[in-house]
Design a protein that fits this description.
six-stranded mixed beta sheet; 23 strands; Rossmann fold; Immunoglobulin-like; alpha/beta; 704 residues; TIM Barrel
Length: 704
């Protein structure tokens, strides 16, 4: 059954509906139309890093952790597993007449906004700060969720690219804020991932953002939705509002005056589906002459085309046979473990890692994230029936070969855990454990209660955002107390965003960024700590010093933001990540193709003592001074597994579009002049090269 036929079937079905029935189908909780065989359907489901909010599911690392793996092929495999579990859970729920929220086939993932400001609480839902990385990973995730639809096959589940567009905080202002973006920043930073999701990955749905962009609410935006999304990009799926964002159009943006006006203008400008209830006013809007029957029916055709593509009305959809026993299967759990291994980033190491277990008698595991399920999950998560905390993973790896001493050390944010006790109730216990130990593993960081979405976190003081780049005060004090004991200390950080840990890098034995690593996070952590696996993740965002002057949070201009435009020296740069082994590059060759693309070959060798994965990164810089240009930009990468001593010749193609420069008016062109390609383990910035003892291969070339 091809897509054209599915659209025709949707048109035929909608034509049989009354106007009232058609309008009722444009709400996220769509009622049944029994006379037409239309079942009740709830459009709201989440699958950011596993099927979320619907009970049991395999929980993979949070999106920012998957970004740190720099592994689109594996991410697509993860997404395929997520989609399989989603279908299995849907099939089982429908069998028992359960068509409630979070149990449908339309999943509002991935979040492909750009993590432009490290304070944004929802940044850990994204793939980081770089448009190229976000585009590559977002497309892989979409393809994995939806399956192969190129031959008119049914979709496994429908993916949704959100939040369109120019959306990344502050959370507190999102319902009323106007994000002002230049044409250059739109075309260079904020729109590329969405454009590619539509044109290259065939994403079925796009979600409009809460905020305004350049004056217009995103869910009723003439330029974004009509001219760009439907017009220039040719998008033919459905558009859904963020939840209760249509209400914001009149209540907070004051762009309209009434619910009827908001509902009408949203549908007229291309928003087909309302997460919320404002579209209940559509019939009154029609009676007031604000919207035509044809426009309402057009939106209904869009949403029903998706339902036909999902095989809801078919008897031959192969995904209907997927059984519930795939949920949380051994195979999916193995994928979650491998994902966690790939995601973790070693930020500093004085040589203490990997730990040599045979030399240790007592290990202290300390900190509020040591024995925390929340530290594994982040947000928008499901719940595994078998999760492994940091402490659990270390205990399992150590067995009876060493004594484990555990102390919570502190609350994750509160100074006073017990109203009857003094502040710092557990500091002394932490110091006792540290004093008795040969090595300390200090597990600190954040969790989804501190950083996340406005209204979903307990972080009322900043609506889910961060006020600075430091750990909470109580944890900073805990670190000082433990480091003061003088034992070798490995700091493990579970968090979804950039933190400044520079105060500890010369006093701690090592610092490891573990993100929110999913259900197998503790097992992967232990494998890395004790040398079974070499860390291989790379930072998908810049880790600034807390004292670095960042632009105002509300300023959406990219000047001074991300590795592409920040002119200072960060604590750790985008693309940084240490390994237990070393890699050497040689024989870089670059050839220009007739179509304007570049073919690149380079040899990489594992020259150290550990088998390991390497993430080879390719950066392009332009030496001209004609306009505000990126310092450099990522244009290619590949993850490679290399045994110690092994070498491989890598072949990469840099598409012509990656050579384009974006001018101030948003136009794209290849500027004449000298360009430089850098290929290696990191960016070619001085600090990364010094810390990694590795200099990327470089080659210059001219374009005219």
């Amino acid at each position: 059954m091809d897509v054209t036929n599915m659209k025709q079937q949707a048109e035929a079905l909608v034509a049989q509906m009354t106007l009232e029935e058609a309008a009722s189908q444009l709400l996220h909780q769509s009622p049944a139309i029994e006379r037409l065989g239309v079942q009740e359907y709830n459009w709201w489901s989440e699958a950011l890093h596993g099927v979320a909010r619907a009970g049991r599911a395999t929980v993979f690392p949070q999106a920012i952790g998957m970004a740190a793996a720099f592994d689109p092929a594996f991410l697509q495999t993860e997404a395929e597993a997520i989609a399989t579990e989603a279908r299995a859970k849907y099939n089982a729920a429908v069998k028992y007449g359960d068509r409630d929220i979070y149990k449908g086939l339309t999943y509002w993932s991935p979040n492909i906004n750009i993590f432009r400001d490290p304070r944004w609480g929802r940044g850990h839902e994204t793939y980081g700060e770089d448009p190229y990385l976000t585009t590559t990973l977002g497309n892989a995730f979409i393809r994995g969720l939806q399956g192969d639809t190129t031959s008119g096959n049914y979709m496994k589940i429908a993916a949704c690219a959100k939040h369109f567009a120019v959306h990344s905080g502050p959370e507190k202002l999102r319902h009323e804020f106007d994000a002002q973006a230049t044409e250059k920043d739109l075309q260079e930073t904020y729109l590329p991932a969405f454009e590619s999701a539509v044109k290259d990955a065939g994403v079925e749905s796009v979600m409009g953002a809460y905020n305004r962009t350049n004056g217009e609410p995103c869910c009723a935006h003439e330029r974004l939705l009509v001219q760009i999304l439907r017009g220039e990009w040719g998008f033919d799926g459905h558009v859904v509002s963020d939840c209760w964002a249509i209400k914001d159009i009149h209540k907070n943006h004051h762009y309209t005056n009434t619910p009827e006006e908001s509902a009408a203008i949203a549908v007229k400008r291309g928003c087909d589906l309302n997460c919320g209830c404002t579209f209940e006013a559509l019939l009154d809007a029609h009676r007031q002459g604000l919207i035509s029957e044809e426009e309402i029916r057009k939106a209904a055709v869009h949403v029903f085309t998706t339902r036909f593509k999902l095989g809801e009305f078919a008897k031959d959809c192969p995904y209907d046979e997927i059984s519930y026993d795939v949920v949380g299967s051994k195979e999916h759990r193995a994928l979650a473990l491998q994902a966690a291994r790939e995601s973790m980033v070693l930020l500093s190491n004085d040589g203490s890692l990997p730990l040599k277990l045979e030399q240790l008698h007592t290990i202290a595991v300390i900190g509020p994230n040591a024995y925390s399920q929340k530290a594994l999950y982040g947000n928008y998560n499901g719940f595994s029936d078998h999760w492994i905390t940091n402490l659990d993973g270390i205990r399992e790896a150590v067995g009876d070969r060493a004594r484990i001493l555990y102390s919570q050390g502190s609350d994750i944010v509160k100074d006073k855990e017990d109203p009857l006790a003094k502040c710092g109730k557990y500091y002394s216990e932490a110091k006792i454990c540290a004093d008795l130990a040969d090595v300390v593993i200090l597990c600190v960081g954040l969790d989804g209660d501190l950083e996340g979405e406005e209204g979903d976190t307990g972080n009322a003081f900043a609506s889910g955002d961060k006020i600075d780049l430091l750990l909470p005060k109580t944890q900073r004090q805990l670190i000082e107390e433990v480091l003061g004991i003088g034992k070798p200390t490995v700091i493990v950080v579970n968090a979804g965003s950039a933190l400044d840990l520079s105060a500890y890098e010369d006093r701690a034995a090592a610092i490891l960024q573990a993100w929110y690593p999913g259900e197998c996070g503790g097992e992967a952590l232990a494998e890395i700590l004790f040398g079974k696996v070499s860390p291989s993740g790379k930072l998908p965002l810049t880790f600034y010093h807390n004292t670095d002057p960042l632009p105002e949070f509300t300023d959406y201009h990219m000047k001074g933001r991300t590795y592409k435009f920040f002119e200072g020296t960060p604590w750790r740069a985008f693309g940084f990540g240490l390994s237990y082994t070393t890699f050497a590059y040689r024989d870089l060759q670059v050839k220009e193709r007739e179509d304007g693309a570049l073919d690149l070959s380079v040899t990489v060798q594992n020259t150290g003592a550990y088998d390991a994965d390497e993430v080879t990164q390719v950066y392009l810089s332009y030496d001209g001074e004609a306009f505000e240009k990126p310092i450099r930009k990522l244009v290619g990468f590949v993850r490679t597994s290399l045994a110690k001593g092994e070498e491989q010749q890598l072949q990469l193609r840099i598409a012509k579009r990656e050579l384009l420069s974006v001018l101030e008016d948003g136009s794209k062109t290849i500027l004449p002049g000298t360009y430089r390609l850098s290929v290696g383990s990191s960016q070619p910035d001085e600090k990364s090269m010094a810390l990694m003892h590795s200099v990327p291969q470089e080659q210059t070339f001219s374009l005219s």
